TrEMBL record:
EC annotation from Swiss-Prot or TrEMBL: 5.-.-.-
Pfam families, sorted: ERG2_Sigma1R
GO BP annotations, alphabetical order: ergosterol biosynthetic process
Alphabetized UniProt keyword annotations: Endoplasmic reticulum, Isomerase, Membrane, Transmembrane, Transmembrane helix
Coiled coil (residue ranges): none
Involved pathway(s): Steroid metabolism; ergosterol biosynthesis
GO MF annotation terms: isomerase activity
Cellular-component GO terms for this entry: endoplasmic reticulum membrane
Enzyme class (EC, first level): isomerase
Protein origin, superkingdom: Eukaryota
Protein name as catalogued: C-8 sterol isomerase
Length: 215
């Protein structure tokens, strides 16, 4: 028993050290640039106005040209319930340290942002998002062309008052975020087919990126 405890302590110590070192160097694993994504979103809006489908196609086409090994062009839409909110999404990229999706709702929603292990950048393409931190009396309002940066480890309430679609980019530790993404499916909606689709597509993209050297 003592030997097992010692082995576990050593294993935990080694893993903790590895995670600490990797966490301090996460920037070296990122392939997407936040300023380029914001510029790309604004160019898509300038070119196509309120035509969300055309904006999305504009964005995914350029991203695929730049990162052909890392961008999924299938547009496999599925619902996602999280923190009391509901929207639909498709995955452009998913790896251990980054994800890039199109997310939104055509009818509005609101809920808890989650407290995540990654920075989240919500680039508004059409519509509007509202958010606020506990203790504030007025909302933060994000119209088309703006970006809502939810810093790692922070939390807000957010709302899509009518409709909104966004290019959402997260960088940091992505796998732990999935617990938040699955919470409502396991405890409320019990929509297991959608949960299976989410898991299968995410796993396929993460493994595919690992196989070409993208952590």
């Amino acid at each position: 028993m003592a030997r097992l405890s010692t082995s576990l302590a050593i294993l935990i110590g080694v893993l903790s050290s590895i995670i600490y070192l990797v966490d301090r160097n996460l920037d070296s694993f990122y392939i997407f640039k936040t300023d380029h994504l914001h510029d790309l979103a604004k160019r898509g809006i300038a070119a196509h106005g309120n035509d969300t489908r055309a904006i999305v196609d504009y964005i995914t086409t350029e991203l695929h040209e730049m990162y052909p090994k890392h961008v999924n062009m299938k547009q496999e839409w599925f619902f996602n319930n999280h923190g009391g909110a509901m929207g639909s999404m498709f995955i452009i990229h998913a790896s251990i340290t980054e994800y890039l999706i199109i997310y939104g709702s055509a009818v509005g929603t609101d809920g808890h942002s989650g407290r995540h292990t990654a920075d989240d950048y919500f680039h508004i393409l059409t519509g509007e998002e509202w958010a606020y931190k506990a203790g504030e009396y007025t909302p933060e309002i994000y119209p088309a062309g703006s970006v809502h940066h939810l810093e790692r480890g922070t939390v807000k309430q957010y709302k899509i008052p009518e409709h909104c679609f966004a290019l959402e980019y997260a960088r940091g530790w992505i796998p732990p975020m999935m617990f938040f993404g699955f919470g409502d499916s396991l405890t409320s909606t019990l929509d297991f087919p959608t949960m299976w689709t989410t898991t299968a597509v995410t796993a396929r993209e993460m493994v595919g990126n690992l196989l070409v050297g993208k952590f």
